[in-house]
């Protein structure tokens, strides 16, 4: 398996934290763009100061004026890019990161061009002022670009490298040795500051993601819990309804959902016969089985007790699909290991209901809770008919049933 490139943060994650990489990268990218919007405004007076302390004295050179104009244009472009992404709500996207990184590198190249074209025409005092301005800008960039050392390196390496090169090629009389050494010390100090600030910000974000993830997971099975499912379904249903409200049918438009309620048959017997630790072992193994049987795009959650919920996405409306029966068959064939070396066979009953209901129009505010109720109703029928079977709500639409709260345990 090819490792995923670490575009935002070069620091590797621990194996247990690897599932959080995408969310961490998105948060770091969002923070990078948010800080970059403010820094783009703050950079304009900094460019003016560089012009005052060095640019005016070398303004007779066309290359100097061109470098300052390029700097201003690129700063404006980066600001406009961030405003555009903000309006589209895309600050967390990989495209935002790549665009910001490229524009920041170009800004750094323009800064380097200012140094290379301006420094030879300045006296020692003016060189010192220009150096102070440049180091000050790069020090502020440590904070604004802290979410990504890669972006900072792409920006600062150009102007600091140009400063070091110019100090070696055009030495200051009497300071030909001290000045380059000072620049190297500044570069090393800025690199250490960036590493520390980035590591602190990254650790803070990762801790927040861990706490959030723990609040949305069932501690026994590791599956999503009810709260997580509610959050995911709110977004999924909104996506479906938004697609259906648009004229025409696109090939990539989301199709329907299927709610699959899975309940372990006679689970109480396992607890009474083998103990609650055995029951927990069965539930944990069943959770792993459900993850193996479903696709990555499907939602799997522990709904409570011995009951699990699978939300199959992108399901053909009104059509049959093999997932519920595949789950039932795998559970029946599985030999569940218990603490102490014993094993036990289990079966499960499954109720299935579609969203949206067959033949129904879905409008704003359509309730997925009703589809879940229908799946639970189908599960009640599966239990009543002898267990270890799959029942679709469409097959029982004409039967008068007791409410699910009265179903057989």
Q: Which helices and strands, and how do they pair?
A:
Elements (H helix, E strand, L loop, with lengths): L20 H35 L6 H26 L6 H25 L5 H21 L4 H21 L8 H38 L10 H20 L10 E9 L2 H8 L1 H18 L5 E6 L2 E9 L7 H11 L1 E3 L5 E3 L2 E8 L12 H17 L5 E3 L17
Parallel strand pairs: 6-7
Antiparallel strand pairs: 1-3, 1-6, 2-3, 4-5
Please give a handful of descriptors for the protein shown.
single chain, 409 residues, alpha+beta, 11 helices, disordered C terminus
Mean pLDDT: 85
Q: Regions with pLDDT < 50 over 5+ consecutive residues?
A: 1-5, 361-365, 403-409
SS-derived structural category: alpha+beta
Strand coverage percent: 5-15%
| C-alpha Rg (nearest Å) | 31 Å
What share of residues is helical?
Answer: 55-70%
Shape: elongated
DSSP strand count: 7
Instruction: Give the SSE string.
Output: HHHHHHHEHHEEHEEEHE
**How far apart, in Å, are the first and last alpha carbons?**
45 Å
Number of helices: 11
**Mind summarizing the main beta sheet?**
5 strands, mixed
Largest sheet: spatial strand order: 2-3-1-6-7
Written account of the structure:
The protein has about 400 residues and is an alpha+beta fold. The chain has helices at about 20-55, 60-85, 95-120, 125-145, 150-170, 180-215, 225-245, 265-275, 275-295, 325-335, 370-385, and strands spanning about 255-265, 300-305, 305-315, 335, 345, 350-355, 390. The strands form two sheets. It has a five-stranded mixed sheet, with helices on both faces. A two-stranded antiparallel sheet has the order 4-5. Strand 6, helix 11 (about 370-385) and strand 7 form a beta-alpha-beta unit. The longest helix has about 40 residues, at about 180-215. The chain is elongated. The protein starts with 20 loop residues before the first helix and ends in a 17-residue tail after the last strand. The model is unreliable at about 1-5, about 360-365 and about 405-409 (pLDDT under 50).
